[in-house]
């Protein structure tokens, strides 16, 4: 098969990154986690005490992705590997706000498009099928019930030794979706030509296989 690009979009905690990683590994493609880019910029925004001048923040920012054989994608921000800080609550709770800013999106989208130039990429995010890769060979819009997404997030947290309350997780996920779907610039929405995949009640293996099947069906 010729090299292809796959766009995987959907709301928060729908399992996009878990599935994207597995699909990429199966097909010997490169996985790009675009949320991590917005999270890295948010980390810097928090480190700098929340400056409101996003043009200035971005003008002093360098961001690159590297791949570690054991640890996967690493995010290098201003010459520092910040990957391990990107899942902190403070970052998660501010990322939708930072990602809604025009200078931030222009900067991140350009990098994402450069990465996808050579094809062979599985990219997950919110606007990949609509804005970043409108010509992607396969677009999947992944959804799951908010209850299940909160439960998955709670299990993830447990594995990381973080205690969390299910009702609070639900509220945070819903708030982030609302913000991401209603922002002015490239809001989260299904591309017209994306296939919807509801993962509620399905195992990781089942969902991965469903996407591999979609890849096989690409004409
Ligand atoms: O996928 P994630 O939870 O790591 O994404 C974090 C946030 O980044 C998400 O709430 C919205 C933003 N985001 C975005 O606006 N566009 C993307 N392509 C990816 C993420």
From TrEMBL:
Question: One GO term of the cellular component aspect?
Answer: cytosol
Coiled coil regions, renumbered to chain: none
What's the chief localization of this chain? cytoplasm
EC numbers listed for it are: 2.7.4.25
User: What name is this protein filed under?
Assistant: Cytidylate kinase
Q: Which residues form the Cytidylate kinase domain?
A: 6-216
Q: Which UniProt keywords apply?
A: ATP-binding, Cytoplasm, Hydrolase, Kinase, Nucleotide-binding, Transferase
HAMAP family cross-referenced by the UniProt entry: Cytidyl_kinase_type1
**Similarity field:** Belongs to the cytidylate kinase family. Type 1 subfamily.
Name the gene.
Answer: cmk
- In which domain of life is the source organism classified? Bacteria
Its BP terms in the Gene Ontology are: nucleobase-containing small molecule interconversion; pyrimidine nucleotide metabolic process
Catalytic activity, reaction form = CMP + ATP = CDP + ADP; dCMP + ATP = dCDP + ADP
For this protein's source organism, the top of the classification is: Bacteria, Bacillati, Bacillota, Bacilli, Bacillales
What GO terms are given for molecular function?
ATP binding; dCMP kinase activity; hydrolase activity
Q: Which residues bind ATP?
A: 10-18
């Amino acid at each position: 098969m010729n090299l292809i690009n796959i766009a995987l979009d959907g709301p928060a905690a729908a399992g996009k990154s878990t599935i994207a990683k597995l699909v990429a590994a199966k097909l010997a493609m490169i996985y790009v986690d675009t949320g991590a880019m917005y999270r890295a910029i948010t980390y810097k925004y928090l480190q700098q005490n929340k400056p409101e001048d996003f043009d200035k923040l971005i003008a002093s920012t360098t961001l690159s992705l590297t791949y570690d054989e054991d640890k996967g994608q690493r995010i290098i921000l201003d010459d520092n590997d910040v990957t391990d800080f990107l899942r902190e609550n403070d970052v998660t709770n501010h990322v939708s706000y930072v990602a809604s800013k025009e200078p931030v999106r222009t900067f991140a989208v350009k990098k994402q498009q450069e990465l996808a130039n050579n094809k062979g990429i599985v990219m997950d995010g919110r606007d990949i099928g609509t804005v970043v890769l409108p010509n992607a060979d396969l677009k999947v819009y992944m959804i799951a019930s908010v209850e299940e997404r909160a439960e998955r997030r709670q299990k993830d947290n447990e594995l990381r030794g973080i205690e969390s309350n299910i009702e609070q997780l639900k509220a945070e996920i819903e708030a982030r979706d609302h913000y991401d779907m209603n922002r002015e610039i490239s809001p989260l929405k299904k591309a017209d030509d994306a296939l919807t995949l509801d993962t509620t009640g399905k195992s990781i293996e089942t969902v991965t296989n469903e996407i591999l099947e979609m890849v096989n069906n690409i004409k």
